[in-house]
Amino acid sequence: MERAEAWAAGSSPGALEPEEPGGLPWFHDQVVPAGSSSSRVIVHVDLDCFYAQVEMISHPELKGKPLGVQQKYLVVTCNYEARELGVKKLMNVRDAKEKCPQLVLVNGEDLTRYREMSYKVTELLEEFSPVVERLGFDENFVDLTEMVEKRLEQLQSDEPSALTVSGHVYGNQPINLHDILHIRLLIGSQIAAEMREAMYNQLGLTGCAGVASNKLLAKLVSGIFKPNQQTLLLPESSQDLIHSLNHIKEMPGIGYKTTKRLEALGISSVRDLQTFSSKILEKELGISVAQRIQKLSFGEDNSPVTPSGPPQSFSEEDSFKKCSSEVEAKNKIEELLASLLNRVCQDGRKPHTIRLIIRRYSSEKHYSRESRQCAIPSHIIQKLGIGNYDVMTPMVDVLMKLFRNMVNVKMPFHLTLLSVCFCNLKALNTAKKGTIDYYLTPSLSTTSRSGKHSFKMKDIHMED
DNA sequence: TGGGGTTAT
DNA sequence: ATAACCC
């Protein structure tokens, strides 16, 4: 029911314009040159208050109530009922309860269900086109260029509603059915609507979508109508869109540090950045950052949609007020490691590097972490797939060595965060029968089938 | 500010 | 190993 608003009337429903004598639409010969990198069709899909949605699916009795998802003393996100009552993202729990005493809070420190749902969304989008890039757990970019081309070729001139935009058009700009770029983006808006419909029907999730010619613009325009709506940006409106930003800080790609450095140069608006001397900007920020962000200020972004594929790393972290003893640290590290081992086991690939990250207490200083990493000993890697507690003890030993390398445990210390990360993930079974690798791979060679205590050839050759 | 992620240097 | 960026 709340779904109905998704299909809010779009502007400019188009009718098909005059045909060529041959019966083909006029644009059938207006193909974009093969290999042309310009004129892409990109969609940015952004789930509505994702963690809160997942919680409402898990606990249907919470639907309709103001709901916040809590991590430590923060309400990290909340549903729209809570937002209407004044709760904001990343609000202190006290402030939130004060603003909204009826607020229901659920703990969201365990990301497992969010992560699983997040990948279901990405996989659903990959069914439309394999080129899907994740951004966090709740956003995805999809490059629709090829799919749009195919639909254009299939397009029959006698379909009455074939050229009707789906959702909003930014600035209510009229669509020009004689402009091939408009037509392509319009088809993109139809695909975006299909994606959102599939997300709702198959996963029960609502979200926004933005369709534009690059990632920057697609992302910016996806947030124009919220929640659960979509917006198309036509090229003629892109300057209006970027100038609707009140500050360069709102430009994706310009973060906290760069904003501070730009402000020091007297740059605060998008137009300031557009008109600032390129030479001076390059000298201040380095040529790479300077050129990239100045292009962003014009709405230009040639970065490709890079398929994310499986994750490059797995990590678990825990923050706390104070950890000041080695025993305490070891207990927390064991907890983090136990969860990570389960995840790595499910993934199937094997990490070859392990990292320990800490945050030291500091009264005023802004957020600095330290880390130590090392290769995971090969005899441990082998045991990763099947047995779980076999690897706990040696892994904890490795992590505590990293810990003592960072923290002098003979001196007082005060930590506020511990994190363990597995990275450098490798697919385990690339070994082919008949090769040396095959006989050195425990899961394939005959010795491995007699159990985890069996003798393994690799142990001889690979002993550390 | 949580509990995650990525890429570049 | 850190620093920057994203959510």
From TrEMBL:
Keywords recorded for this protein, A-Z: DNA damage, DNA repair, DNA replication, DNA synthesis, DNA-binding, DNA-directed DNA polymerase, Magnesium, Manganese, Metal-binding, Mutator protein, Nucleotidyltransferase, Nucleus, Schiff base, Transferase, Ubl conjugation
Cofactor(s) this protein cannot do without: Mg(2+); Mn(2+)
Interval of the full protein contained in this chain: 1 to 464 of 728
Localization terms from the record: Nucleus
Assembly and interaction partners: Interacts with POLH. Interacts with REV1. Interacts with ubiquitin.
Entry EC no(s): 2.7.7.7
Species of the source: Phocoena sinus (Vaquita)
First-listed, main subcellular location of the protein, grouped into a coarse class: nucleus
Function field: Error-prone DNA polymerase specifically involved in DNA repair. Plays an important role in translesion synthesis, where the normal high-fidelity DNA polymerases cannot proceed and DNA synthesis stalls. Favors Hoogsteen base-pairing in the active site. Inserts the correct base with high-fidelity opposite an adenosine template. Exhibits low fidelity and efficiency opposite a thymidine template, where it will preferentially insert guanosine. May play a role in hypermutation of immunoglobulin genes. Forms a Schiff base with 5'-deoxyribose phosphate at abasic sites, but may not have lyase activity.
Cellular component, GO annotation: cytoplasmic ribonucleoprotein granule; nuclear speck
Catalytic activity: DNA(n) + a 2'-deoxyribonucleoside 5'-triphosphate = DNA(n+1) + diphosphate
Gene name in the database record: POLI
Keyword Disulfide bond: no
Domain UmuC: 42-255
Family membership noted in the UniProt record: Belongs to the DNA polymerase type-Y family.
UniProt-recorded name of the protein: DNA polymerase iota
The keyword Signal belongs to this UniProt entry's keyword annotation: no
